[in-house]
Amino acid sequence: MIDSFSFGAMVIDGNKYTSDLIIYPDGRIQDAWWRVRGHGLSAGDIAGLIEKDPQVIIAGTGVNGLMKPEMQLKGYLAERGIKFMAGPNDEAVNWFNELYVSSGVGACFHLSC
Fold this sequence. Notes:
The chain is of the alpha/beta class. The protein has a single domain, classed as 3-Layer(aba) Sandwich (Hypothetical Protein Mth938, Chain: A). The chain contains 3 helices and 10 strands. The chain has helices at residues 47-51, 73-79, 89-99, and strands at 2-6, 9-12, 15-17, 21-23, 29-31, 40-41, 56-60, 68-69, 83-87, 105-109. The protein has a 5-stranded mixed beta sheet with strand order 5-4-10-7-9, sandwiched between helices. A hairpin with a 2-residue loop joins strand 2 (9-12) and strand 3 (15-17). The radius of gyration is 12 Å and the shape is globular.
């Protein structure tokens, strides 16, 4: 569960993270996550998460929502049976906390802008 977030920081199960991160369906967290195109989000950027075959992927697009998923990403994931939800971190954190109790939920978060 995500306890809190602010610009540049997120607390998950009492542990503080200060870099962009991916949360896998099994609860593993990959911090220091980088994307090929900075504020863009592509399938390649979350390939490891996609390989885990989650039912849902939630993308926190930053405090101000400046990270933009590529247009074809939602369709690419839908073809694989993965629901994709993207929005500013306040919305994405709420979605994640509502859904995380069910298995098969993964997420990625841009912690700054």
